[in-house]
Amino acid sequence: MTVIVTGSNGLIGREVALQLLAQGHHVIGIDADLRAYFFGPEASTAGNEIKKKNFRFLDYDIRNTDAIESIFQTFIIEAVFHTAAQPAHDWAVKEPLVDFDINARSTVNLLRCTQKYAPDAYFVHCSTSKVYGSNPNELPFVDRGTRWDLEKTHPEYNGIREGFSVDGSTHSLFGCSKLTGDIYVQEYGRYFGLKTALFRPGCLTGPNHKGTKLHGFLNYLVKCAKEDIPYQIIGYDGKQVRDNIHAKDFAKALILTTTKPQYGAVYNFGGGRHSNHSMLESILHLEEKLGRPVKTTYEPTPRIGDHKWYIGSCEKFLTDYPEFKYEYGPWDLIDEILEKV
């Protein structure tokens, strides 16, 4: 199988490419190191290029429609894994047109090329939990001391399901651009009959994440703790909850969708109840591992459209792909990042 992976130097794209190569597939990786543009040189993915047989790297910007189309014209493409994105709330406000071009228009172009040149290919898209905007914040949370959470009797206790509303909420501009791409992926599956599946994860992480203040909170938190640099907690008393999934586990899930044709499938798959913790719980764990306090500062005003609590329901994905098994739990994630960053 010949496969396109966008964002092939990034956290998820690189892991997807490595797993596909290990399975014997040919991979065309696309990456222009836009993280360095978004977040500065410390977030650069330069040097992450895979040096393996059957891997072809193309230093293309996914906004370059002609360059992207040329790939489909040159190769027989059997799958597209679209993991490239502008991933940060705050950055989108600085350059909303760039954010939209990357997250929305470029996604549509990839879909268009797939439909035109590779109509039998699988198209697997990495969306985000932020498509739900601020709606999760309206759930009736209770204070558990170190975290906000739901009562076990609440319908969403085991995670927000795919039918949860995206309407009537504040999204952040990043959430808007990702929602646009998200809906187009669904529509190309349902309207045009392309084999498409998309994922709306919470936090994707791992030791290879180039975490920065604006994106990649868990990796950046561990880095700050290890280097004894103050970490800024923003809102919700540090009790905001995220489900966290290791890049290896998430890549494995993305690849599994090519074993069963889907047409506009949506999965809120991530760490779920299997792997989640609050910011405060993460800090307490790090203090125990390091044997000293973690330096923090606190900004009481939350970011616009940010979630007080997000755990995605994994039920739908695990029903469709019961063979999936997690390799990492919540503390395995933090401990591996702490060891390797």
Radius of gyration: 19 Å
| Beginning-to-end CA distance, first to last residue | 34 Å
Strands side by side in the biggest sheet:
3-2-1-4-5-8-12
Major sheet attributes: 7 strands, parallel
Would you tell me the structural class of the helices and strands? alpha/beta
Helix count from the secondary structure assignment: 11
Strand content: 15-25%
Topology, number of strands: 15
Q: What's the helical proportion of residues? A: 25-40%
- Mean pLDDT value: 95
Structural summary, described in words:
It contains eleven helices and 15 strands. By secondary structure, it is of the alpha/beta class. The strands form four sheets. It has a seven-stranded parallel beta sheet with strand order 3-2-1-4-5-8-12, with helices on both faces. The chain has helices at residues 11-22, 34-39, 65-74, 89-94, 96-117, 173-190, 217-227, 247-256, 279-290, 315-320, 330-340; strands at residues 2-6, 26-30, 55-58, 79-82, 122-126, 142-143, 148-149, 195-199, 203-205, 231-234, 241-246, 263-267, 276-278, 296-299, 309-310. It is globular. The longest helix has 22 residues, at 96-117. The two termini are 34 Å apart.
What's the topology here?
Blueprint: E1 2-6, H1 11-22, E2 26-30, H2 34-39, E3 55-58, H3 65-74, E4 79-82, H4 89-94, H5 96-117, E5 122-126, E6 142-143, E7 148-149, H6 173-190, E8 195-199, E9 203-205, H7 217-227, E10 231-234, E11 241-246, H8 247-256, E12 263-267, E13 276-278, H9 279-290, E14 296-299, E15 309-310, H10 315-320, H11 330-340
Parallel strand pairs: 1-2, 1-4, 2-3, 4-5, 5-8, 8-12, 9-11, 10-14, 11-15
Antiparallel strand pairs: 6-7, 11-13
Helix pairs in contact: 1-8, 3-5, 5-6, 7-9, 9-11
